Amino acid sequence: MESQVKRFPAAALESKVAAALRQAGASEESLAAAVRAMLHASMVGVDSHGVRLTEHYCQMLAGGRLNKNPQLSVDIRAAGSAMVHGDDGLGHYAAYKAVEVGIDLAQKAGVGAVGISHSSHLGAAGAYALAGAEQGYVTFATTNTDSMVALFDGAARFHGTNPLAFAAPVPDSKPWLLDMATSSIPMNRVLLHRSLGLELPEGVAADAHGVATTDPDRADMLLPLGGADYGYKGAALAGVATLFSALLTGTTLDSDFIPMYGGDDISTPRNMGHFVLVVDPNKFVGRDMFGMMITRYLSSLRAAPVRPGGERVMAPGDREWETVAQREEQGVPVDPDTERFLGL
To answer: Which residues cross the membrane (predicted)?
Structure first.
């Protein structure tokens, strides 16, 4: 796929994306958060949630769905819990704020659980888990999204792609990072395949009747993680994201969302909910002992025997950090539609 698109330096993309959001009227604080999260996704290889979303966010800012100058508010509910009100702005802004609040809580209570309401699409959930881990905290981030994934054996959309992201600090190394959709793939990847004219892999999407298809133009919904035999696992994990992001925050259920794409209404806020959990290792086993243990764990994991035909055993995040290094050297691939929109 990447061979069919041009590559650009991350710094050039950062400048172009910021300029586009600024022209659309986004405040400097909110656009800085959005640029940070989108560049994270583009650098680690999650192109579906990277700079290609700039045009969509600009359209939503112009249409009024997104508040151009959101004023975030924080309500501390208990020693280890809080709510952030996103004021219907760019979701990245509220999500990074929740990580900051979670860290403040965790420094005192050991854990900081932060719900987010009145927010919007936040891009790659891993960006926020990583933000906590980079400051020394084990961090979990999740969100529910509008219905686009069938249930196991289902023939209609029910859950969103509902990512679960976890990250942990590793001494003298990049953090351990897991960022996974509970669907087979993100819907943005279907749109990316449409843009590039490429077929989808087997078993990841279905047509309007729930029948599996590899044609991105016929794909109407996604299939849950786990495939034909074990998709019930992905469908259940999607419910975990809904539990934390919608039920605990009192926001919008997957099936009640205004669609992110394709609808006529781009002026009504979507009241998305997200959830961030920050854990301070120092309040458990201790930061030094945790650092020693995770280093030992990852060393053992990477040294595990490799099956015949396999290349090597990798820890979550290894592939992403290799992609970052490659893209720092070779540039970030950008699809043709985004290249045109950003004027690259």
So the answer is: none
Q: Is residue 291 within a helix (H) or strand (E), and if so which, with residue range?
A: helix 287-302
pLDDT band (50, 70, 90) for residue 261: confident
Is pTM beyond 0.85 here? Answer: yes
What is residue 51's three-state secondary structure?
Answer: helix
Strand partners, 275: 115, 142
The secondary element (H helix, E strand) that includes residue 10 is helix 10-23
Helix residue ranges per DSSP H, 64-164:
91-109, 126-133
Closest listed residue to residue 141, CA positions, set 155, 124, 129: 129
Q: Quick one: which of 114, 91, 89, 86 has its CA closest to 101? A: 114
DSSP, collapsed to helix, strand or coil, labels residue 231 as helix
> How far from the centroid of its chain's Cα atoms is residue 235's Cα?
18
The secondary structure element, H or E, covering residue 334 is strand 332-334
Partners of 224 in beta bridges: 183
pLDDT at 3 (0 to 100)? 57
Q: What is the mean pLDDT of residues 15-32?
A: 98
Contact (Cβ atoms closer than 8 angstroms) between residue 129 and residue 140:
yes
pLDDT tens, 157-215?
999 999 999 999 999 999 999 999 999 987 778 888 888 899 999 989 999 998 899 99
Stretch 253-273: mean pLDDT, rounded?
94
pLDDT at 2 (0 to 100): 52
Token pair 């910021």: residue: 18
* Domains defined along the chain, listed by start: 70-293+316-330 (3.30.1370.60)
Which two three-digit tokens encode residue 284? 């458990």
| Helix (H), strand (E) at residue 119 | strand 111-119
d(CA 48, CA 181): 12
CA–CA separation, 342 and 339 (whole Å): 5
